[in-house]
Each structure stands twice: as structure tokens, then as C-alpha cells.
Design goal:
Blueprint: E1 3-8, E2 13-19, E3 25-27, E4 38-39, E5 41-46, E6 49-52, H1 54-62, E7 67-69, E8 81-83, E9 86-88, H2 90-109, E10 113-120, H3 126-139, E11 143-148, H4 152-169, H5 179-188, H6 198-212, E12 218-222, E13 227-231, H7 233-241, H8 259-278, H9 294-317, H10 328-333, H11 346-354, H12 366-373, E14 378-381, E15 389-392, H13 397-406
Parallel strand pairs: 1-10, 10-11
Antiparallel strand pairs: 1-2, 2-3, 2-4, 5-6, 5-7, 8-9, 12-13, 14-15
Helix pairs in contact: 2-3, 5-6
Length: about 400
């Protein structure tokens, strides 16, 4: 019987497993020590004589210059390791670890393979994933798939959130009433004017379920005079098994739009959502319409979108004076992975702490800066019968800097 092996290429230790005839995962022990994991360490005794695992880890004490460990952290980087005057890449060294694991598995199971599946951390980008695939190919076997591991932190947060909602909203036994229990006691079980009728009880319970979108996890039995519920244990367990897996489906071709770019584009939709929320904010006022004819509605929507574009453009150009992050490239470099939480740049953190811009001037919000710019006035003055004269108030350093960033000249 042939197998598709699964390999966990770890930073410190690695392991290989397969599914038996009953579909149960079986971890293959190390062929030398019998341990379920093998240290991800490679020892070059000679240019062509290599040891992997515990022997290599022990050799690091006496010959650290001939030992490579934690090579996973260099995957996807243009880095070389020189041992015995021979250059090795992270992929070639990882291939030695993968080959060692694969040989142990084939010897222990005594069955040919149909390829391997290699898991990588959730934060691995396309370059790191491709480097891992190349390592498998260098090891001499077919890499069926590179699978990102679940995001453990995200999985833990989702698991805690789900069960907190289940306990709070519908079903727990600590003596405190849940939302649905309150509905039953206040509406159904009360002595005067109790709630009756399946439709009316369903409306009340539905309001509770829709608040947290948890209807899929419960079986409800609503009668004319009461209700009962129970958890769908299998459905809850099935959803919990997918916690930490970040899936985005797209019709775009993978070769022209890599996964990392797709995740960033998806997360960038939050800017569009914010734009729709703020399209009629108080930053720039747009008069409402009272005669909702088709052409007037279209014109009004166009004006709202134009106003939002003006606000977006001003915030972008005035970013050095605002709390807004003015160095998106540095902020992107602070992010370990597109899946990771977005971070601000060092300059934005300095502005937030000191409340001063790089030129020493106070940092503004967009609204307070508009209020400051509103103090710049243009006055028309007439002396006797002479022609009116336009006089501008003297701009402050903040106003001068703002007009410079906007590329505008203060003129009468």
C-alpha cells in the first residue's frame, strides 16, 4: 500500500506521519533514537558526508562551524551557508532534513510513497512557501502540496469567543440567567399576560440568536406555550476544527496575483468600508437633497464621492502634520505576514508619543487642522472712494506648512 506522507518541517524539530488503513494518523519514529521527532540540525563531517538529527545536534558542541540549525528561519532568503568551502542554500540544507525523514518513513512502513505534503507556519509568504517546495523537490520526491498551519493565536481567540457567546447567550449552568432564559422567564413563564404562540415566541428568541449569529449551533423546539433548546455538539466541533485557518477565495490567477497580495487586497477593503461610512461625515459638509428624483440622487452621490476623495487626498498630503501614518512602507516592513495584525511605522509611534511632528510643530487630527486653517481669512477693505483692497491675514507656521504640503500658494 502506498502513502502520501505529511512532513512538519520545524525550526527546532521535524516529524513525518502518514494515514493508516483506518484513516488514523501515525507518526513515524526516528530510525536511530525511536523518538517521534528529529532535530532539524545538519552536521557536515565532510563535504559529502552528512548527519541529520541527534548526531548533528551533539556535534554542534565540538564543531559548531560545521553544523547548521534553525535553517527554517532563512527559507526564502538569498543566503548561503559555507561549510568545508562549499556553499549551501537554505533549500539544500532543508532538503537533507526532508530526505532523512522520508528515508525513515519508507524504511519503517516498507511501502512506496505517492508524494508528500509539507506544512509551513501561517505567516510564511509565497517566497518561503516556494522555497520549501523546492527543498522537497531537491530531496527527490514529489511535493503534492504546501499547507499553511493554522494561526494558533487566531484559533485560540475564536475558540474563546465562540464558547463565551454560547455560555452567555443560550446555555450555561452557573446560576445566572442567559438571554434566552430571560426571554422564557419574562415572556413565557410570567403569570400575567404570558407570551403565547409559536410565531411570537420565535420572534423573541430569533432576536437573541441573530445578535450573535449562533442559530446554527442550536436545535430549538418552539411550542405554543414554551420552548426548549440543545447544542449541536458535532456542528460546534466541526467549526472549531477550522479555527485559525485563513481562507480567501478569488477568481484571479495565482501566477499573476500571489496569495500575499490577495490577502493584503482583501484587508484593504476596510478602507472602502470606512469610506462609505464617512462619505457624509462632518469633515466636508454636503447639503442634503429633499426632492429625490433620479438625476438629483445620482448627482448627490457623485458629490458625496467627490467630497470623500477630496478628504482622502488632503489626509494623504497632510499626513506629516497629522496623527496619520505618513510612512506606509515602514509600516508594511513592521508586519511579519499579511495575515498578521497591521502595525504602524516608527515615525507614527514617535508622533503619537511626543505629539510633535518631525519639524517640532504640534500634531493635529484632520478636524483640528481644518479648524486651524479656517482662521486664515481674506478681507476686502475700502478706503474712502478708492477701489476695494484685498488683505490676507498673516498665516501661522502651521498654515504655511499645510499649504506647502498641499502644493497650494496662499494668494488673494
Amino acid at each position: 500500500m502506498s502513502h502520501v506522507y505529511g512532513i512538519d518541517l520545524g525550526t527546532t524539530n521535524s516529524a513525518i506521519a502518514y494515514l493508516d488503513a483506518g484513516g488514523r494518523p501515525v507518526v513515524v519514529p526516528n530510525g536511530v533514537t525511536g523518538h517521534l521527532t528529529t532535530p532539524s540540525v545538519v552536521y557536515f563531517q565532510e563535504p559529502t558526508e552528512v548527519a541529520v538529527g541527534d548526531v548533528a545536534r551533539n556535534a554542534a558542541v565540538a564543531e559548531p562551524e560545521n553544523v547548521v540549525s534553525m535553517v527554517k528561519r532563512s527559507m526564502g532568503e538569498a543566503r548561503t551557508f559555507t561549510l568545508h568551502e562549499v556553499d549551501h542554500t537554505p533549500e539544500s540544507i532543508s532538503a537533507l532534513i526532508l530526505k532523512h525523514l522520508h528515508e525513515d518513513a519508507v524504511a519503517a512502513v516498507d511501502a512506496p510513497d505517492n508524494g508528500v505534503v509539507i506544512t509551513v507556519p501561517a505567516y510564511f509568504n509565497d517566497a518561503q512557501r516556494n522555497a520549501t517546495k523546492r527543498a522537497g523537490e531537491l530531496a527527490g520526491f514529489t511535493v503534492e502540496r504546501i499547507v499553511n498551519e493554522t494561526n494558533k493565536r487566531f484559533a485560540r481567540v475564536e475558540n474563546i469567543r465562540r464558547f463565551a457567546i454560547l455560555e452567555k447567550e443560550l446555555d450555561h449552568d452557573d446560576g445566572e440567567l442567559t438571554a434566552t432564559q430571560k426571554v422564557r422567564r419574562a415572556m413565557i413563564e410570567k403569570k400575567r399576560n404570558p407570551l403565547r404562540g409559536q410565531d411570537k415566541i420565535a420572534l423573541k428568541v430569533g432576536a437573541v440568536l441573530d445578535r450573535r449569529h449562533m442559530a446554527k449551533h442550536f436545535d430549538l423546539a418552539i411550542a405554543e406555550t414554551g420552548l426548549a433548546w440543545s447544542r449541536k455538539a458535532e456542528a460546534i466541533a466541526a467549526e472549531a476544527a477550522l479555527d485559525g485557518i485563513y481562507v480567501i477565495r478569488s477568481s484571479l490567477p495565482g501566477d499573476g496575483f500571489p496569495a500575499a497580495a490577495l490577502v493584503l487586497a482583501y484587508k484593504g477593503l476596510s478602507h472602502a468600508e470606512r469610506g462609505f461610512r464617512d462619505i457624509k461625515s462632518g469633515d466636508l459638509e454636503v447639503r442634503p437633497i429633499h426632492h429625490r428624483r433620479a438625476h438629483r440622487v445620482r448627482a448627490h452621490v457623485f458629490l458625496c464621492m467627490l467630497a470623500y476623495y477630496v478628504v482622502w487626498r488632503m489626509k494623504r498630503d497632510l499626513a506629516p502634520m497629522l496623527f496619520k501614518d505618513d510612512d506606509p512602507a515602514a509600516a508594511a516592513a513592521e508586519r511579519s505576514s499579511p495575515v498578521a495584525k497591521a502595525r504602524v511605522s516608527p515615525s507614527a509611534r514617535r508622533k503619537a508619543i511626543s505629539r510633535r511632528a518631525e519639524d517640532g510643530q504640534p500634531v493635529h487630527s484632520f478636524r483640528t487642522l481644518l479648524q486651524d486653517l479656517a482662521n486664515l481669512t481674506r478681507n476686502s477693505v475700502r478706503f474712502g472712494d478708492a477701489r476695494p483692497t484685498t488683505i490676507l491675514s498673516r498665516p501661522t507656521p502651521t498654515q504655511t506648512r499645510a499649504f506647502q504640503l498641499l502644493g497650494l500658494k496662499i494668494a488673494a
